[in-house]
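Hi X.,

You mentioned you wanted examples for the new student's onboarding notes, showing what a folding record looks like when two proteins sit in one file. Here is a clean example. The first protein comes first, with its sequence line followed by its structure tokens.
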Amino acid sequence: MDEKSLTTRAVAEEAERHSSSREDEDAEEEEGFEGPWYRFPPIRNAGLGGIVLGLGWLAGKLGLGPAVQIPLYVVAIALGGYFWVREGWEEFIEEREVGIEALMAFATLGAVLLGQWFEATFLVFLYGLAEGLEEYTFARTRSAIKALLDLAPKEARLLENGRERMVPASSLKPGDRFLVRPGESIATDAIIREGRSSINEAAVTGESVPVAKGPGDRVFAGTVNGEGALVLEATATFEDNTLSKIIRLVEQAQSEKGRAQRFIERFGRRYSPVVLLAAVALVLLPPLIGLDWSTWATRAVVLLVAAAPCALVMSTPVAMASAIGTAGKNGVLIKGGIHLENLGTVRAVAFDKTGTLTRGEPVVTTIVAAPGWTEREVLARAAAIERFSEHPLARAVMAKAQNEGIEVPEAGDFQALPGAGARAVVGEVSLYVGSPALFQQLGARVPAELSDKIDELRDGGHTVVFVGTDEEVKGLLAIRDEIRPEAKDALQALREAGVEHFIMLTGDNQRTANAIARELGIDDVRAELKPDDKARIVKALAEEYGGVIMVGDGINDAPALAAATVGIAMGTAGTDAAIEAADVALMADDLRKVAYAVRLGRRARAISRQNIIFSLAVLAILIPGALTGWVGVSLAVAAHEVSELLAVANGLRAR
């Protein structure tokens, strides 16, 4: 896939108000346009039409008469209306729909038939200029994310047989090794094989603080290498790397519509034909009852201009596209306008505990041995069993044993006990590692020295793991997953953004969950849950609060994320499954991005609402003005186009 294939669709697709049947050469010219605004084809043509309009007006002032003026006005209309008149004609004839361009084209024709050449030309010029500026703004807004591709280098230093040669970055394939020198950008997703350095991942995660990385760590396309030379092994082709996926996802999201936009488009399809019929009625009916035809024909022309819902149609798309594009550049992928709208309305957030509110890297903090055993023996036996397990608690035990220099004995006949622990034969003794509930089920005796410690450790936010036989517990390990340092700030930011209810969901025991929740100021805690329990609770929360955001890791919490009004997956950079599981994907492992997404949703929704109210107010003033005759063609055109541009400018504030 080349860079061109990642550009946004033709500007004519904006808000689906422009016909997709525009000639290919024109669409391609606008789609790939990257020059200054005054060279954008619709703006350029409107500007040339304006110059010719000025010449026609000057000819009149010089007394040259209609013989000179009218040909100049015809040329100005042809130039200024080249793009939008053709679109309106195609939509009216081929698709049999009355759009805004059709209303304006009929208004222009009506003014010409009434002999109002200057007014007709002024309408074409001003509408063409406004449409051109609007389309240019929308195109730049929707395609700004494409600029991320420029962060990835076009070439890479491929390593083959100990030699280095420059190759196009697009030719890299998984397994290729390439060299990245200090200060250079990384061509595609890869794993570090040699070297250590700090990597600036702002392009992918939105976090500007460099991350220290070494052999075995993943790096992403478009990120910038710091001080050390790195030998990398590619894990993705250029078109499938994380940066390219971000761009594709944002472009797709910007083309998806929210509820407000869909409603406005449905309204427009019914409203515009009514305006045209009303204008026709103003032309045909007044003479039948003895009223002056020219007066009401002029009002019909003014009505076509005044009642055209340009600002209303543009009230939502620009705000949504601006917000989604800006979020994508900051490492927050919002997968459609509907999700952005929902972010702006939801006032309850449910969090998974492990890996979301906590680091997801549990550590052994305390070891207590029963009489006759030592702490090192308890740790050694636990590590002997846990070496076969992939559970996060097992990794914590193994890490503790390694740090303490424990010699781990051999174990055999390993058996995982899902949701409870594990069993293995160490030496000739069958030992268990697991929750107190497991040993209670086994009927094992718990020495008083251990049982007295359980509640104290759980109240401190620890998970307690027993080690022993099916007859007696020999020791316990207290494991704690530390709270993320930014968690409290993130929750406070959410409160300031208008979130009122916080819920913590976890598979951990109730006392441990309560301890973590107390530190964070969360009152509603649901503990000892399985994945399907979380999904069921999220559905109930959505009904209770009228919607709920679920924040999790995107894989283990996939059922709950899918059940939520908005599912937010954290730390998804390079993880396809996590991105697919959620409505919003946070590329960085930063809980504060949740509040950023909520604020953005609130802002985009507020701006859209402002635009809708403003647009309706303009129509409420101009339509009666057109019908009563106190608004003329020139004033109607000026007010109409200014209101449209104000709606676009206000929408851009969502950035």
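Then the second protein repeats the pattern, sequence line and then tokens:
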Amino acid sequence: METTIKKSLANKLERLYGEQRALSVTSEVMELIQTYKHKQIEPEKKWVDEKDIMMITYGDSIKEEGEAPLKTLREFLSDHLTNEINAVHILPFYPYSSDDGFSVMDYRTINEELGSWDDIRALSHQSDLMFDAVINHISSKSKWFEEYLKGNEAYEDYFVEADPEADYSKVTRPRALPLLTKVETSNGEKHIWTTFSEDQIDLNYESDRVLLEVLDILLTYIEKGARFLRLDAIGFMWKKLGTTSIHLEETHLLVQVMRGVLEEAAPGTIVITETNVPHKDNISYFGNGSNEAHLVYQFPLPPLTLHSFQTGEASELTEWAKSLEPTTDSTTYFNFLASHDGIGVRPVEGILTPSEVQRMADKVQTNGGYVSYKDNGDGTKSPYELNINYLDAISTNGESNEKKAKRFIAAQSVLLSLMGVPGIYVHSLLGSQNDLDGVKETGRYRSINREKLTRSSLEEELQTEGSLRNLVFNDLKTLISIRKSTKAFHPNATQQVLEMDRRVLSVVRTNEQTGDRVVAIINVSDEIVPVQQETFDPYVKGNAYDLISDRVISSDITLSPYEVLWLRSSEVSS
């Protein structure tokens, strides 16, 4: 087995670094594998299933005075979400200098304001954890970059030096900021590659020393309690002048090396790639179905769902869902609606028209949000990201809490119904709204959905009957519990999209191994929608039983606004 993995890695490393360098790098990689392999305990559960529901949160999204936020998070989960949430994506919890954690100063230490590695370990005993591997770039305040500036030879090739006079017009730019940053070093003035900001210095993977360092960091994260590793902004890892410098062959080879090393040293580790790009490019990180990411983010889902609930039309969402190809048994999608970032709109290029995207952006601004723009390279700009709390994004001003909650739960049901693993952002779970004070305080649009909550105040609101938090939290917990007990919602269960009405999204989920089948029917509109029994009858045996309302349906249905049904044959038990 060792010979097989060694040959596989050697082949990829040779394509990256050439034959001569690959020999020594392969040897060092194999030593790394052996160093960590004996430390790992294989997880009992090697893959995901319908019970996997992940909460996405910052380490300090919920705080209590005098207590480490990571401890507060663990206690809140234990007190309120033991049966609903079994996995937690803790956004970067390392020391950082900007971008709310995504400009990491030290990959191997914990931000003292959040807690310690002991707190992380305690959380890992309670929930599966996803760590962020922010490995496209590192903080300008990091030791690595400071040593580079000093002229330390050990770090001289850790970063991408560039000629400011060269032509970078083909390079894909995610933000309307300069690509290169001028710095003063002990060896004179240099221009270095900074894809995201002048504080986020891109790492140079043409250096095998950088790759070895990063592989060691990834294995350290597994040792510290991670089951999932999120490779942040992974598409930009390899730079090549005269190209887009995104999704290059070398980038895919790097991901394949990481996957191979992790599978050999820590079987059961699940790799998830974060690439906020059009769908075709995004799913390219599945590789051949067994050699790159296990999970990829389903980036078109947030804007398409938003569009559906803003317009009351599910047509584009339905057509997109029909276009999804089945995944392999060892790959699936990571579904989400809201996140710590905004709602990216690049993934719906070719799905929604520019005018539809602009209307969506206009509604977001009407609802108190903001729009971030990208540089198109021709002097023009277009929407890149909608910055708003998701609940507010689909709401209408002046409506009741009950109506807001019902519409929002219907949107979350889309997330929970489709094939893949659901990731629910903490502020969606808690029924939060726009944090406009946060934007004023930081000057950053993304702060609108990154509020820090005091646990005692939060719990008081959650317990207040009829409050928005109370309605959303309890209804969403109920929906999650039903999903977790339904084998038809296994991430790899087949998905067939039905066309019932332009205002309805409907999918049939079938677990081929157990025979369990559910027809999900979701009214995305504020209208009453009739649904004929003949449209769902072929997929249920006998009378249909709705898992949500706990009633038997034996005739045509009239869907109330934003109603959700999960229909199963009344003859089938869980």
